[in-house]
Predict the 3D structure of the following.
Amino acid sequence: MKTIKTLTFTLVLALSFSFARAQNNINGITSAYFTVKNALAAGKPNDASNGAKTLLAALSAPETGLKPDQAKLFNSYAEKLKFDGRHILESTDVAHQREHFANLSKNLYEVLKGLKLNTSTVYMDYCPMKKAYWLSESAPIKNPYYSDKAMATCGKTTATLAAVK
């Protein structure tokens, strides 16, 4: 009986470490994404490029701790996310960066929604002028598709992914 309890405890401990590793990887990806988003909202293409470099590094890190169905979902979007991340990295044309940011946002939302590993609330916002979505770490609108003050708060929250603890 003592052996079964020890084995059960060890298995639970291993699974919780695995879950924590997966959450850390996803947190790194979302943190880098938010860096890109905030740089675009500020109209700083060089900062967006630097954020995309961090994002690509996070996307290229080995995904550990994901369950098989989560790994399948992540891998089905990984190349799309990297494609848009590379375009943001390699360009200093903010319009081109924003074009790829729209696809990056849509795909990352699907990943986060499917994995259910985000440790903080993530908001999906929509810009009716650009007909494009983005993810945000806070409820107030900070539109990455426009960096001028008149349009900085244009948009609305359309979905919320609650934090998973």
The first strand starts at residue 122 and ends at 127.
